[in-house]
Amino acid sequence: MKAKLHHIIFENTSELPEKWDNFAVENIFLQKKYLEILAFSSPENMTCFFIGVFQENQLVGIAIAQFLDGKKLESFGNRDRCLKKIVRDFTFKNFSSQILFIGNNMLTGQNAFSHSDQISTVSFLNELKKATQMLKKKLKHSGKKIHLTSFKDFTENQTNDFTQADFSSFYRFDIQPNMVFDIQNHWFSIDDYVDDLSKKYRDQYKRARKKAEGIEKRKLDLAEILLLENEIYNLYYHVAKNAPFNTFLLPKSHFGIMKKNLGHDFLLYGYFLDEKLIGFNTLIKNGATMNTYFLGYDEKIQPEKMLYLNMLYDMIGYSIKKHFKKIIFGRTALEIKSSVGACPEQMFGYIQHSNPLIQKQMHRVFNALQPKVAWKTRSPFKN
Predict the structure, then answer these.
(1) Domain range for 237
(2) Assigned domain for 381 exists
C-alpha cells in the first residue's frame, strides 16, 4: 500500500525543496528563477504561495497558488463605461474580490502544477483541494476571507481528471480562448509565412509594414530596460487601464526584474519613433513554445502606424527564425490575432464560492464578472 500524500505550503522561494525544479523542466513558469520574480515583483494586490506535495519524505509534485485582493484595485478596467460595467464592478468588489487561484492569473494556460508519474493527477488534485482549505484558514487568520477559489486554465482533455477527482462542488466555466499560433515545419523565415497567406492577408502584411516605416525596433538589454523603466511602465499602464477587465497591475520594477532573473529567456523589444519610445512587447521562451507577455504602446501613434499588428508579425518572424514550435498569444485581441493565423483553444476552469447560496447562482455571478467579447474567426492562409 502506497503512503498517503501530504503537502507543505511555502511562502518564500528560499524555502522551496532542493528538487523543486526537477518537476519544472518543461515549464519555465514553475521554475524557481521565475517564481522568485513573483516573490519580489508581483502586483501589489497579489500574494503568492508555493505548494509541495510529498509521499512520505519524497517530493512528488509542485503547484503555485495566488491570493488576489481586488479591494486594493481602484478600478477593474476603464474601457467599458456603461451600466453593465457598474454592475460587474459592484459584484466583483462586494462578492468576489478576494480570490484564491491554483494557477497563475498573470498567464494563460496550465501553469498551475506538475507532478511525478509515480502518482495520478486525480490523487494530486485531491491533495491540492486539501491545500486550498489550509490556505483559506491561513488567510482567514490574517483577516482575509476568501470569496472564491479557482483552478485555472485547462483544456478539455485535462478536465477529465477534475471529473474523476470529484470537483462537483465547483462550477466549471469556460472563458475566452487562448490564441495559439502553430509554426509550420516548412517555415524557415517570415517570407515563408507570408507566402502561405491568401492575397487579402498578404496585402494586410504589406500595408502594415509600409505604415511602420520610420519606426526603429530594438531588443533592449537590462541596462536599457532600467534606463527606460518609466517610459515602459507608462505605456504598459495605459494599455492595462483601458482593458475591458483587469484584476491586477504590475509594479514598475517588474520588467527589469524579469530580465535580471530570466536573462536570454526574456525578451523586451522597444519601438522608437524619432528616438522616442512609442511601444514595446515582451516574449518569454518556454522550451519549444514562445509565450507572449505584456506590452504597451502610445494610443495616438498605434492606429496610424498599425503598431500592434506589426508587433504580432515581429513575434511570428522571430519565433520562426529561432525554430519555436508554437506561440501562445493569450486571450486578448482575439480577432486581430486570428487574422495573423492564431487559432482559438478553449480553456476551462473550476470555481467555488464560500457562500453556498451564491455558489448555486454561480453561472449568473460568473457571467456578470466575465466580459463577453464578440469576434469573428479569420482564415488568413491559402486553402
Answers:
(1) 179-344
(2) no
pLDDT of residue 70: 80
Interacting residues of 12 by C-beta distance below 8 A, sequence separation 6+:
39
CA distance linking residue 191 with residue 196, whole number of Å: 9
Mark whether 84 and 162 lie in a shared domain: yes
Q: What is the pTM of this model?
A: 0.92
Which residue, 359, 363, 331, 370, is CA-closest to 88?
A: 370
Distance set, CA 283 to CA 216, 266, 270, 370 (Å): 18, 6, 12, 26
Give residue 366's pLDDT.
80
CATH number of the domain to which 159 belongs: 3.40.630.30
Task: Give the Cα separation of 335 and 329 in Å (integer).
Answer: 12
Q: At what angle do helices 83-95 and 362-369 cross, to 10 degrees?
A: 120
Closest-CA residue to 294 (of 43, 106, 111, 112): 106
pLDDT (0 to 100) of residue 79: 46
Residues 272-301: pLDDT tens digits? 999 999 999 999 999 999 999 999 999 999
Q: Is 192 part of any domain?
A: yes
Rounded Cα distance between 217 and 272, Å, is 6
Quick check: is 111 in a domain? yes
